[in-house]
Each structure stands twice: as structure tokens, then as C-alpha cells.
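Posting for a labmate who doesn't have an account.
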Amino acid sequence: MSATAANFLGMDLVSSLPTDVREKLAELELELSEGDITQKGYEKKRSKLLQPYLKKQELNDVEKAKNLPPPPYYNIKESNNSNSNVNNDGVIVSSEGYSYVTEVPSLPSSQQRHSKKSDFHQPSSAISISSSTPQSGGGVPGYENMRPQGGAVGDPGYQNTREPNTFQNHAPHPPTNSSQNRQRRTQRKVTHNEKRYHSEVRQEAVQQALAALKGRPKPSLPMPSKRSSVLNRSPGCNDELDSSSDDESIPEELISPDKEYNYPRDHISKNMLPPEPIIKPPIRESSMIAQQQHLRHDVKQSQAPIQKYSLSGSAAERRPPQNLPPLPTSDTSSTESPPIGYKRDNEFTDKAYKQKHFNAPDITQFNNAHRIADRVTRYVNVSQTELNETDANGKWKVSAKIQQLLNTLKRPKRRPLPEFYEDNDIELEIAANPKDPNAPKPEGSTMTPVQGEQLSIPAGLPRTLECALQRYGMNSFKSSMATVLDPNGKITTTLTYGKLLSRAQKIAYALSTKIFSKGPEQVTLKPGDSVALVYPNNDPLSFITAWYGCMFRGLVPLPIELPLSSSDTPPQQVGFLLSSCGITVALTSEACLKGLPKSATGEIAKLKGWPRLQWFVTEHLPKPPKDFNVGNLRVEDTAAAYIEYTTDKEGSVMGITVSRAAMINHCRALTMACHYTEGETIVCVLDFKREVGLWHAVLTSILNGMHVVFIPYALMKLRPSSWMQLITKHRASCCLVKSRDLHWGLLATKDHKDISLASLRMLLVADGANPWSLSSCDQFLNVFQAKGLRSDAICPCASSSEVFTVSLRRPGRSSTTGFCQSATGRGVLSMAALSHGVVRVDSEDSLTSLTLQDCGQVMPAAQMVVVRSEGAPVLCKTDQVGEICVTSGSTGASYFGLDGMTNSTFKVQPLLEDPEQPKDGCGTIASTPKPMSEEYYVRSGLLGFLGPGGLVFVCGSRDGLMTVTGRKHNADDIIATVLAVEPMRFIYRGRIAVFSIKVLRDERVCVIAEQRPDCSEEESFQWMSRVLQAVDSIHQVGIYCLALVPPNHLPKTPLGGIHLCEARRRFLEGSLHPANVLMCPHTCVTNLPKPRELHQDTGVGPASVMVGNLVQGNRLAVAHGRDVGMAEDGERKPQLITGVLRWRANTSPDHIIFTLLNAKGAIAKTLTCSELHKRAEKIAALLQERGKIEPGDHVALIFPPGLDLLCAFYGCLYLGAIPITIRPPHPQNLITTLPTVRMIVDVSKSGIVLSIQPIIKLLKSREAASSIDPKTWPPILDIDDNPKRKLAGIATVSLDSSAYLDFSVSTCGRLSGVNITHRSLSSLCASLKLACELYPSRHVALCLDPYCGLGFVMWTLIGVYSGHHSILIAPYEVEANPSLWLSTLSQHRVRDTFCSYGVIELCTKALSNSVPSLKQRNVDLRCVRTCVVVGEERPRVTLTQQFCKLFQGLGLNTRCVSTSFGCRVNPAICVQGASSAESAQVYVDLRALRNNRVALVERGAPNSLCLIESGKLLPGVKVIIANPETKGHCGDSHLGEIWVQAPHNANGYFTIYGDETDYNDHFNAKLVTGATSEMYARTGYLGFLRRTECSQAASILDETTPSVASRDSDTESLNSMSQLQLNFSNTSLGGNSEHSLVGGAVNSNDQELHDAVYVVGALDEVISLRGMNYHPIDIENSVLRCHKKIAECAVFTWTNLLVVVVELDGNESEALDLVPLVTNTVLEEHQLIVGVVVVVDPGVVPINSRGEKQRMHLRDGFLADQLDPIYVAYNM
């Protein structure tokens, strides 16, 4: 039977089953929720149980389907249902339209409870004290305001049966009558249903809070999108829709966007959350029509604001019938209209019912058969598809969701930003902790210490624990000391006092004689040495014998948890504690030793972080000799008795040392407070290794000679009521439990009948300090008073590892002393006041009140004060919450080995007044604060206050405290609120973790919960949104991150609770793998620096800025390359390149000028000067004859990188035609690459296409025809055709005519072509020849794309001009063989090489493990002198550093690697010359860069960014920095646009595709200050200049070198004027010849000054957010660092939202780990809030041929929904 069928049968079937079957089903549910059984096993067992009853059920199905009533927790909403009203049958219907059952067995009904409120609360006083017990049938004190019961966070086992929400309504039907409802409820009472024991108070508060929020107009939040494969993996998503599913009877317009459907949640547009649960309620006819009508109305309305991205109405109707309809976008124009679905209309159509089955739409739109990582050619044809058309799926464009997100963000923020902007951390800190002037202030007087009663030791109590054991072991050796149950509840073994004594003596003797070998030396254990006790939780007997064995021997035991497996929480921290305590020996049992993780050799594996331990088994030991007497050992009282481990908030493990005196004093105090007597039986459910379990069940029990019955955790999971059965059986008088055990006991209703708790005089609730314990205690008393439980038997206690028992409510409450022990109290407190640390009584019905119960009174002989939890330990006022501190003879002594922490925790002297207040004029403290007394107090870690009568109230712990924006919130309080938001249906009760993380100087609240497996995407998103509202409304704090993980995914402690520190650690390292994540940084982060105001028209023009720079001593930013000079061969005057080729063909015809290598590194083809000349002539003749090409015509050359391209290019020049080189389309990806090729052919106005046969075939293939009709191409010529006659003569053209057009797609996706003249071409070649020292004897290896920019120049032109030998390697060959380029350099002894970033990256990634094998193949890179990385971007420092480091082993000199810089207006501005010094590097302040300032900082400074200069300026080049807006000349300390003046500048744009407006001044820009007549070309790149001294000795890429740009021009104000005159007058001297004038004593041999050009980023790509300018690469670098699985990322903005796209190199289940990390990192490092995080597959971020990211293409692909993302998260 399928799970769906089981669910379907669930409600009716379960209610009619026999009781025993129902109980078995309930047990099954519990097992499943605990994770003790798999889903499959659960279904199998369940179907087996239900099989006999299924047949009957099927017969009744048809009948039932016709008139199935709705489940009682749905309410069909009336149109005027404004207030919550109580129906006669006890269902409260809130104004949200939710109802919940209030008829709870054994509890008074809602009205009764409300009427009895006044009996128990006196609103006038903060705490109500009631000595009397509550009446047995009546209300429970304070019940209205307590939170849902439940154990400490992370207590397991609250996952109980979810009510099957099944109904099938094939037709609308009227509301069912109340009697049916009542009948249904009474049947459900009997089932194992947890709802019965809810404290409905917090639930009511949440419901009312959400109802109050409902009135506000709130735009809907966009739901995150998941890929279907991720959905299928997330809990409970089935691939196929079962035919009996609930969906089929619901009109298609109403089906919730569930599971695979990535629609935005716009259909719930007006409220953040729908007024009804989205679990398909029965629908009234009229509301359905209204919805259909409203949908159409909404679509029309929403088209206006976002027409480009929304669906047209007709598209929705043309859809194939099986898909879901598109949903309308949010209609922001009519915010006050009622939610959709409640607009009424009168006509009814039954269109809605026609469709029954829905296939999941195919959302893998990018479904090419191959998923190759073809970044380069990905979204080229986005422009072809109209963005406002949807595909056949009727899928939503992403933009609609973003539009929703924007609408959501338009809400006014609750707290305005502080009104200042200071770019430093102190200000962020201040903004994170604002002082609230309206915060309540404490008004009481300073508190006085509260004294416990005097300790009276009963006569005859043994002096020490050893004496006690010897006395009882001799005198009453047959009486039981400890009994343990096995997991089936049977009593397995009982340990008598006699056996315990003899076994402990055996262990003591064995430990005193045993010699442990530690390496070469032998070690024996001496008294005072520490040993570890490693025993499982189900073996208390062995633990107790080992403990007392250590006591007898004077050893110091340290009990630790068992390291069971690698899946356990890493016990590393425990290892550190063992090492610091110097522990070498661990005592354990035989069974336990077998279970420890073993290594391959069968020895005990060494655990990570643990010291080498000797394992000693404490069983089967020989008898000690007669003369061995344990009583002979005398140990000082001050000596350590044992060490107890504890963890702090961050998860660090510390050991608390306990002295012998403190141990015995604590046992005596407990004996007196709990009235323990000899022979009593005590039942223990707690962990016996630490805290309350250890103190009572292992220590105090022996002192008093009591009998302890231990119940292992495994049995509690199986039979939660076993502890009560044992009390009944053994007539036990005391019991040690946690509130979760009370809760579990209440649930096991089938076991209640035989239970009698009349013998119980003390039920000690160990976590009484937890604010939730109140409701568990009250309900337990209420149910079990009838079974003999006395109200004065319930004793909550507060404890901590440091102080031990802090306070305890005395059993029986009767006292012979004058100390008032009878009082118990509870207080209804305002949570808002508590968040400011002040106690204020709240009204009964307040939504934001917290009801606390007391934890009894101070322990005997102890004294208690409350001091401030932060800062100096000043005594609190009486109405102030602080940290409870205790002094007594029985507290911990220290943290082992941690002196500083010990002093601040164990040696506190409370002060009477605040030391920070009185200050004299000088600001020094005038008076030393006076301590209250000389005594040292110990901090307990508990936060609370003292009530009347000495009652202790605890309202939180220091570890659970989160200080958010200056207010304190307790994690437990937030958990209670979260659980009150429909907890049963979505998450498991005890499986929730709340913690805070520090982001941007403030704590941020994170909530992680385990969601149930049957919860759909839509439901969980609904629930998350409601949780956000509830917490915001009740606690006035925003949740920063809310995550849901699959069942059993949160790390557990050994006793099954949530391991909070580990959950937090996994969250922060990105290994928690959530199934759903909702981030809300927009609402939580209120301390962002205020946006910078842009000052307009202030009257400060560019000229005054220039003068200001001079006055300040800032040099104006200008730099020159050296003069081109008088070169040989008369090369000074420009020559035509065709003339050079002809000359070379004549003078050195056989000189090999080009060699092309294949993928194996072998020579594929060579070309000599004369061969090139002859082939060029032949091609020119072919073009003239067959193509009828005239001089000046445009010819498109579509060739792969190779020699044909060269020949074709020179063929065009010989004819005087203008060639355009175009990259051929990718054969595997024609659909996206072919349109680009075609676009360049069209835009360049090419009259003919020249190519080779394979590409011509490709262009005319059937695959190509699907995107471009082959008949529409211009004439295509094959280069291998032979012309009939020879070329008459080479065309003569003027130097100023066009040589070629250089077309390229910029990183912003803009296609532009520039015109390069023969004069520019010749100047460029001359300049490069001079800088790079290129001569015919040189070999230069090129691994570049030969289609545009410097790559084209190096591949095609410079070789012919200089005559050197070019070895050509096509970059795609390196993809096939990554070592090809490096082995070529080695094999051909190449000195100079040029490559692209793509090649460097490929080598670094692909060869990272291959360096040894390359060494074996004798690859030697010592020959390389210059390796220039060609780029049009900021140099990639990290990549080049990695490359250098990696291949240093092959002899690569790190100094030789450098970068070049070129752009559209000038292909080569800077190139590292052959003999120039290596590149300089500087560190600049990132925050200053955002404000267009350049501030140098030291390496390693916070917010520093390392930049490398982009090579040296080429000869003949002049560069200035100008303000791109005002065109004023910038100073050295400003970031501005790089403008360039050079003879080889391009000659203007041929075209910019689709945009010819803004770029007219790119080639003829003039400054408005200074030399206003000079013409510059604008590069479009931001950068700055630095006068830098550069030593020849050190390498830039060696990270160990300090920055060499230290003496920059900012400090040279004295020389600045002379520099300026130099710059303006003496331009013929290059920047390099100025060193003698500047800096005086610099030795010209060692160092020379030159002007370095630093490129920061493209102007087009600058992201302007919050008044500041960000460069995408900086944000991307931060994101790449935040998680190891991020392969690549790109950022862009869309309508002021920052969108981050990350490629996940890992399992799809890890996608959601990235969302919080990306958000945190960008917020922390850049103070920006990420709006959308998109997780995609590797290879999705498109990259152009130069290896640069095409962010705008990516943006277009995202908005057109073409990325097929794994997950899209919309941060709120």
C-alpha cells in the first residue's frame, strides 16, 4: 500500500480501528519520528497492520467521497468573520481562519480556564505566591501565559502522529454540522495525539499576533525555486501524482504551486501569508468563480507595470492542456482589496473541473543533450527571443519573482537607519547597539544577598563517600545500591553495596599495581592523576564501580561520552580536554571496548585530536591481597575529587575541577534539601555521568545508603512511561526527570491505568530552570493528581556545572526551620522588558508575556546574589535580570588549566556600584568600586532574578542569550514561539535549534528545524513565512535565517537532544544540507553604513579639484611610455604591413615564420615568408575573380585558429579589402553560437564569407538551418578553390585607410567593431617590437584566440612585422591536452610567450597534481624570460600567484609572469617588456575604492585589496586619469577613467550593435582642465597611476615580498610641483628617466621610479548600490572564498537588487548550504545585502574567448529563465 493510500485511509480508518491496533500504529509513528525505523519499514509494517481493515474501507469509499466532512482543524471562512468566536462544539476559530480543538481531555475547557484566571493571579504584584495546591479539577495557575510544554531544545521524541489531512471533495458541499465534527474529535481523542497537551497560550498569542498583522497590506514574498531533481530529493516529494491524490477535485486555478511548479506565490498577493492554510480547503462555488474572474482581471492589471516580463493573457490560453496555468503577478495597485478567493460573483462555470491529471512541466529548458561546460557560447541568442513570451510550459519569468521581492522590500523598515555615515568598524558597532531612550530602566533598590538555611548534618551521616561505601558495604552488604533495566524494561542486574565495595577495591588495587607502558618508559598511576571514564549510557553499574575504584585510589575521574562512530559529533574538543588534563589511561568495560572504532590492524583507532590512550577494562580483576586497605590512603580535602566536562556557547569543551570538600558538602546540602534517608528508592532517568544525575544518583545516594533504579535512554524512547511504572512497582519515594520525560509520560496514555504515584514524595525536575518546564509540570500534575501525585512533590531545580545545584524547590514544603519553604510562585512577565534586562509584570492576556515558575530557594549554607551579566560584576537592582552567582562550600573550583577564565567565573567579587560612572575631569576613574564582601562568588551561567520569599526565578542562560541590536533574547523563548506556529504539521517538536551568528558587528538569529517528510514545498514556505511574522510580532526581533532540514539531519548529543554547537558549526561551514532556506537580511540588518550622499552642483568644478590636488601636494595623474626613438631599418616612419611581408618574402624566403602545433605537440604545419606571400596572392586572386571584391569591400573570415586564417587575412590586404575575423560556431552548440556569427557578418556589412570546407558544411547543415536559413548567408567562398589567373598586383592603399575591423563582444555583452588603420597597425607593431625586443632570431609561443585585440595582433601581425618565429597553439588544443603549452615552451626553449587567463587557469586546475610527472618528462621552464597574460581586465592576482607557485618546481621564474592591458580603443596600452623590471604590487583600501579614492594600506590590513600593475606602458603611449563624469583631470589619489593617447589608438567605432548614442566621444575626448586641446581615447576602464619604485631583486608574485609601492606620491608633497613641471614640460623623457630628480638619494642602479598603471575594473560593470561603487570581481572573490564547493560565481544587479549566481561543484543537496554563506560573506565584507542567490551547475556562467565573465549575458539568461538553476533563493 502506498504512503498516499495510507494517508488517505488515515483519518477514518484509524478512528474506527480497535484500540490495540491504534496503539501499535502510534508506536510505529513514534519509531519513525525518532528515526528508529526507515520510511520503507514503517510503510511495510503499517500496511501489514491495516491490511485486514482495508477491504471494508474500500467498499465505503464511494459513499464517503460524496459527503466527506472537512477535518476539524479547517474552517470554512465566512466572508464577515472578523473576530474569533467560539462555536458551541468547542472549536475556536481565529480571525485568521484557523481553528484548533480546545476540547482537551483532563484539562478544563477554554472558557472555564479563562473564567478562573482571577483566582490565581494578582496582577498588581510581579509574582503570585500560592501556598495552596490548585484544585484538582480546576484551572492551572498561570496556564494562560505559559508556552507549549516540551523539554529542552533538542529533546527528541516530540515527533508524534501527524493527523492525516485527507479528504476528497468531488463536488462543493455545505459546511458539515457540528455533531459530526464533535464525533470526529471524540474519536481522535483516543489516538496517540500530541495536540492534547499543547499549552494553547503561546498558540493563541501567535494566532492573534498573525491576525493582527493580517490587517496590514503586505505584498507577497516570492517563493524560492527548486529544480525538480532537488525537490524529489527533499522530504516527501513524490515524482508521480497518485490518481487518488487530493488535487483532482480542486479547480486548476486553485492548485497551490506545489512541488515542481516554480511559480511565484503571487496568488496570495495581499498578505504575506494566506488567510487560510494552503492545504486545499473545501471550496464554495462562488469563491471559485471569483477566483477565475479575479485571475484574469489580475493578469490584465499586472501587465502594465512589468509588461516586458509578465505573461500575456493569450499565452495562458494557448498552453497545452496538461500544464498548470500561470499565476498572476502581485497587483500592487489595489492593496486594500480582499485576498483573492474571497471576491464574490454570481455566475458559476464548471470549466474548472475539466482537467484531472497534471504532468510536471519540464523545467530543464536548457535541455541540450550534452551538458558540456560551454561557458563561452551560452546565452548568445537571448536577444532573439522576446522576453515577454513564455515557453510552452507557461513558465514564469524570474523577473516576476524579483518584482515581488522588490514590492516586499518597499515596506517601511521598522527601525530607521542611523543618520550618519562613517566608514569604520566602530561606527558599525555603535549602530548595532543603539541606545533606546524608551527602554524601561530598573527602578528597585540594590539587592541584598539571599542566605540559604543553615546546614544541619543529620547525626550518623558518614564523613566521606569512601566511609559511606565501606560502612554500607560491610553492615548492609545485601541491600541494593543500583538496579538497571535493559532496553525491554526487564531488570537485568542489581548491584548490592557489598558487591560495589569489593569491585571498587579490586579496581583500586589493580590501578595501584598496573604498569602502563607509554613508549619506552613505564607509567604507574599515582594519587592525584586524572583518568578518563568511558562507559555507555546503559551501563551505570560499571561506571559507579569504576568511579569508587578511582576514589579509593585517590585518582581524579573525568567521565566523557562514548565516541561511537565517525558519524557522531566530532569528539575533537574532548580530545583537547584529555590532552590538557594529561590523561593517558581510560577505564572502560569489555562490551564498550569491543564497540570502539577500530583501525585496520584491529587496534583501537586513534581518534582525531585525542591523545594516545591506554584502555583498561574494569571487569574480571583479581582479588586484592588481605593486607590491601583502601582506608590507608589519606587525601587532602582541597585535592581534586573529579573533573566534570562542560561546553560553552561556541562548543569549546572545558573541565571543571571539583575538590573533595566541595563534593561532600554538596552531597550534604542535597541530603538536607531533599530530606534523603537511608534505604529510600530513587528512580533516575537522567544522564548519570554529569550534573544532576551524577550528584544525586551516584554521589548523594551512596552517602545516604539509598537504592537507585536507572532507566536507560533507549528504554525511554521505546516506553516513555517506564519510569512511572517503576515508581509504582518499587514504591519509589524520589524520582529524577527532565520536563521532556513528563511530557513523554503524558503521551503514553495507554499505560496510565495501572500507575500509582502515591509513594512519590519528590519528583525532581532537573531542567526546572527552562522556562518551558512550567507547562509540563502543570499538566503532569493535572493528569496524575488522580493517581496519587501530591502537588508538593514536584520540585523544579536550577543547576549549572560551575555552581552545582543553584536552587531547589523543597519536597513536602514543610519546614522545621524558620525558612519559609511552603511558598511557590509564578510570574507573568513582559518579554519586551526582559529583553532590556528589567522585570515588569504583564497583563494576563498580553501576547508578549512570559509565565515563569520558581526554581525553589537557595541551597542550605549557600548565599546568592544577582550581578550584571556583562561588564563589571555590579549588584543588580531588585527588578533587574542578571547572572545568578553563588558562594558556598560546594561549587566548582576552576576550569582545568584555564586561569583567565577561572578568575572571571569562579572568583567574582560583586561590586556595590558601577565603576564606570564616577569620573573626574581628566576622564580617569575617581573612586575604586567597593566590593560587597571579601568572599568570592561563582557565576552560574543562569540569568534570572530573586522574587519575594527568596524564590529564585530563572529566565534564560548565558549560553542561550542572543543580543540583537542591543536587546537580549532567550533562545528558548523563540523556540516556544516557533513551536506555536502549527508545530504538529510541519516540524518535529523537539528537533529545533536556535542560535545566533555574528554578521556585520551584530548577532543575527538563526532558526533550524527538522521538517516532516510529508511536507510540501509550498506548505513549508507558508509555515516559514508565518514563523517570521510571529517572532517579529511577539519578540520584536527579526529572524535572519530560517532553515528546514530533512528528518534526523540535525546533529544529536549522546542522549538524543540537539547538539546546538555542532549544528551551528555545520551551518557556518556549509555542511548542514538544509531542504529549505529563507534568509531575511533586508529586515534584520539595520546597521548598514548610511549611503553616501552624492553632492551635486556644489560649485566645486574640475578646475578647483585640480588646484586642490596641487595644494595638497597630490601629483596629477599622468604617465608616459618611453619614446619610440630612432629605430633601425628606417622603421621610424610607418610602413604598410603588406610591404613588409613582400620584403621578407624577397630577402629571406625560406625563413620559417609560423609553426602550428597539434594537440600532441607535434608540428602540424609550418609557413615560410615566401609561402605566406604566395598563398596570400592566390587568395586575393580568388576573391577578385570569384567574389568580385573591390578594394574597400568587407570580407568575413570564419576560420579556426590556424595558418589558413593568416593567409586569408593577408590575401584580403593584398587586394585592399577589409577583413573581419570571426570565431567559427561551436559544432556542439550551434543554437547559441551561430546567431552571434551571423550577427557579426551582418553588422560588419561583409559582402562575402571566406572559410574552409568543414565550416562551410557546418553553416549549411540541417542543424544550422533550424536557427539560420542557409540561403540567407552572403556568398561563401572556399579558401582552397583555385583561381584561374594570378593577381595582377598588390593594391596600394594610403596609411590612413582601414586595414581591418576588430569585432568583439565586451564583458557587458555589447558587440562593437573598431576601425584599425594601416598607420595604427604599423605604429602598434613598431611599439611592441621595441618593448618586447622581437627579432628574426627569436621564438615566441602564442596560446591565444586570434580573433580580436592583442591576441589577433600577436597571432597575425607582429610576426610578419618583426620576422620572429611564432609557434602557434590553439587554445582549444590545450583543453584536450593541458600540458601542451608548457611542454612546448620547454621543448622549443621558448624565451617569450603570450597566453590568455583561460590557459593559465586551465593549467593551474588541470595540472595541479601533475608537476612530478611533468618533471619526469623533463619539462623545464627555466628558459622562459617573459610570460605575458593578455587581458582586458584587472589582473587576476590570485590566479597568477597560484600558477607561479605551482610551476616554480619546474624552474619557472615567478618574476617573468606579468599581465598586459588593452581595450577596444587601443589593443595594447601596457605590455611587460623583455627587459623591464617586474610588476609592482600595491595594497589599497577597498572601502576607499568604493568612494573613488585610492588609499594605500599595508599588506594584511583589514579591507585591503592587492593590485598588480598591468605591465609597462608601451613606447609612445601617454595615459592620464580623468573623472568620467566631469572630464576633469584626477590626482594620484583618485580613482578615475584611464584615458590614452597613442599613435596606435584605433580610429573610431565602425559600429556598436544596437546602441550608437553614448560613444561619440570615446576617441576624441578632451579634458576640461589643464591641456584642454589634447585629444584622448577613453578606455572605459577605471584605474589609477602610482609613481612606484621597483627593485629588480624581488618578485612581485612571491607573496612573501613586502609591498614595493611604499614611497608613493602622496608623501612626496615637497617634490610634487617639480614633478608636475617635469610632466608637462619634459615629456620626451619617459617616466623611467625621472628617478634622478625625485627622491634624492635613490641609487639608480638598484631602484628606479616609474609610473605604474593599475586597472581596477570596467566602468560599464561598476555596480552602484547605496551611493557607492562596487566592482563585481571583488564581490565574486569574496563569494568564491566562502565555501569550498563554489566553482565559479558572477554578480550583477537588477533593479537595485544584487544577484549572485554561484556554480555548485558538488551534490545538488548541498545547494542550499551556499545561500546563508554567500549572504553572510557579502554582508560582512562589502556591507551589501544580496537580493537573490542563484545556484547553478558548473559551466553555466558564460565566459568569452579571453576568459572574462559575460555577466550581462548571464543576467539576460537569468531573467529569461534559461539557466535551469538548482535553486533560487530570494532574500527578504
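Reply:
Got it, the C-alpha cells are right above this. The radius of gyration is 40 Å.
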